[in-house]
Amino acid sequence: MQKQIVYIHGGDSFDSHEDYIKYLKETEFSLDWFVQKKKWKTSLAEELGDEFQILMPDMPNKFNAVYEEWKIWFEKMMPFINDGSDFNRAFTGRNISS
């Protein structure tokens, strides 16, 4: 059985919806922002080899991460984790504290 690595890219969050909208309106872009860049995570599976399975879920609304939305995504992902015991403990601990 392959060892699994779950890679969750972080997200941003805002104190209010208004702050989020302000961020969207005031963020300035350049051409570089839109050009796809080679990132280490895209070659991770190749670098680690067949011994590993890399899970990289696209999390909901990464520009304005909301705990409740991400929690739903994690819960949907759990059946696909081969041995989520450490992951479950960490996630359950977060749930209890919220």
Question: How confident overall, as mean pLDDT?
Answer: 81
Share of helix, binned: 40-55%
Kindly report the oligomeric state of this protein.
single chain
Strand order of the largest sheet: 1-2
Tell me the domain tally: 1
- State the separation between the terminal residues, measured CA to CA: 34 Å
Spans with pLDDT under 50 lasting ≥5 residues? none
Write a compact overview of the structure shown.
This protein is mainly α. Helix content is about 45%, strand content about 10%. It has five helices and two strands; from the N terminus they run βαααβαα.
Keywords, separated by commas or semicolons:
98 residues, mainly alpha, two-stranded parallel ribbon, 8% strand
What does this molecule look like?
The chain is mostly helical. It has one domain. The protein contains 5 helices and 2 strands, in the order E-H-H-H-E-H-H. It has helices spanning about 15-25, 30-35, 45-50, 65-75, 85-95, and strands spanning about 5, 50-55. The protein has a two-stranded parallel ribbon with strand order 1-2. The protein is flat. The model has no long low-confidence stretch (mean pLDDT about 80).
SSE diagram, text form:
Layout: E1 3-6, H1 17-26, H2 31-34, H3 44-48, E2 52-55, H4 67-77, H5 85-97
Parallel strand pairs: 1-2
